[in-house]
Amino acid sequence: MPTITVYQYKEALGMHQMLNSLVSARIEGGWLKAMPSKFNKNEVYMQYCFWEDVEEDIKRMFGEEDNIISILKENGKTKALRRIYCFINVISRTLEIYRWHDAKTDEMVTQFESLLGIKLTQVAITSESLQKIYTNHSTELKQAMFKNVEGLMYETLRGNQLEANGKFQEYLQKFPTCLRVVSFRPKIRFMNGDSRYQVTINGDKGTIRISENGDYKWRPRTEIRQIVFMLAAALGLFAN
To answer: Which residue of 120, 136, 179, 219 pairs with 127 in a disulfide if CB–CB is 3.0 to 4.6 A?
Structure first.
């Protein structure tokens, strides 16, 4: 399951204006497909396609696997086609990039800003907002990460029903602004009625990740959209 990096913008753009700017867009080193989303009438769905060096692709997944790289190069496979899925919602004014945050997502954001005439900012989720999300939208808190507590860069707590754990409650009282990551079982509508997987929200990186599960090896857009909306609501983005 991919990591979703979430951005926000303040400019008011309608669907028609958004699509006009994206449908015929040209991007350096690749191409962009944009269309209305079949999941929501207020969303634009995009496929951002580009060619990537096989060597860089393999190093990211497997590390320094020289043998694999050599075999592929011997067979003429030096480039790999990559597709990154994106959604822009004109109501919440959010951009979702189905990729972890790296130099490529920074490059994509710069291109989208130029095409749409907007300023995109990676969302930063406060400790208070993270608490609001798991309190209102989870059936069970499974993991929490605190930053800069008792001389430690990070302190991770894990367990069942962690919200009722004494040490977790103590940390919240002593370090109310230090909660940076939460993993929980979401209280949302599931397409197949299964709620075994958990969601991780990273407040510093502005990312969402759904745990691997055999039933969700495809991207569950309906579920992800609900999670993004709960994040946007906690941040007060709909008030804009």
So the answer is: 179
Q: Hey, how many other C-beta atoms are within 10 angstroms of the C-beta on 143? A: 15
Total domains in the fold of the chain: 2
pTM: 0.84
> Which long-range contacts does 60-69 make (Cβ < 8 Å, 24+ apart)?
none
Using the 3D structure, point to which of 75, 100, 122 is the last residue of a domain.
122
Strands annotated E in 21-90: 30-36, 43-53, 79-89
The first and second tokens of residue 88, run together, are 């822009």
Q: Do the Cβ atoms of 6 and 120 come closer than 8 Å?
A: no
In sequence order, which residues have a C-beta less than 8 Å from that of residue 132 and are 6 or more positions away? Answer: 234
* Between residues 61 and 160, the one the model is more confident about: 160
Centre a 10 Å sphere on the Cβ of residue 105 and count the other Cβ atoms it contains: 20
pLDDT per position as a tens digit, 188-220: 887 766 556 789 999 999 999 987 655 554 557
Q: Which residues contact 114 (CB under 8 A, 6 or more apart)?
A: none
**27 DSSP 8-state letter:** B
